[in-house]
């Protein structure tokens, strides 16, 4: 088990301007959205690189991988478009030193009514392989993320994500778990020990009244989060833990959340 003082704790960011607050709060690293990276002009990305270089913070991972028009399943599935997007995102992620990219992006993978799920699984596997091939050029691991039904109707449970990674059996296709999604699916206190060979990254958060407003921890859930984090690491997890939020970094709430993440 990773020792408490070795645990890496990070924060997802909506914009590069939040790096200063993340640094001042004491986070070890940050995550940017994949779709944010790709949306930047060359000049804007160069500014982000300079911003990242000015702080002793790793850009350790990416969340929110792609916009809705990049389809993982369905009638508009386009493998060439998938590869081109992955190449663009991976190139910038590689320049930032990213190690993991989480594949959530619910609007890109939700299934239409009557969709053939067997075909959807086959498409998802092809999507992951094409994406992992591009990111693999930079030694970046692609992580399937199970999402709650409030976001998507496809790959909702940890076991489903693990099965995909297991069946593909590529070294750089693994799983990221998200305790917010797990809680919504009744898996918040699930024993994950048997799936640890596939779980390489993790997210956690609360919300401010709706799943579209994921936030830093609410005080009344502090004990729940501490218990889940402690159990997670005791079950054999040795990776990093990010608080994934849909808001700018609120320093007071972020620092309180970080203390809980570090089990202090």
Q: What percent strand?
A: 15-25%
Continuous helix count:
10
Indicate the structural class. alpha/beta
Spans of at least 5 consecutive residues whose pLDDT stays below 50 are 1-5
Largest sheet: 8 strands, parallel, barrel
Instruction: Compute the number of strand runs.
Output: 10
Report the mean per-residue pLDDT as an integer.
96
Task: Give a verbal description of the structure.
With 264 residues, the chain is of the alpha/beta class. It is 41% helix and 16% strand. The chain contains 10 helices and 10 strands. The protein has helices spanning 19-25, 34-39, 42-53, 79-96, 106-109, 117-136, 158-168, 179-184, 222-234, 251-261, and strands spanning 9-13, 29-33, 58-63, 100-103, 141-144, 173-178, 199-204, 206-207, 214-215, 241-243. The strands form 2 sheets. It has an 8-stranded parallel β-barrel, surrounded by 4 helices. Strands 8-9 form a two-stranded antiparallel ribbon. Helix 7 links the parallel strand 5 and strand 6 (173-178). Residues 1-5 have low confidence and may be disordered.
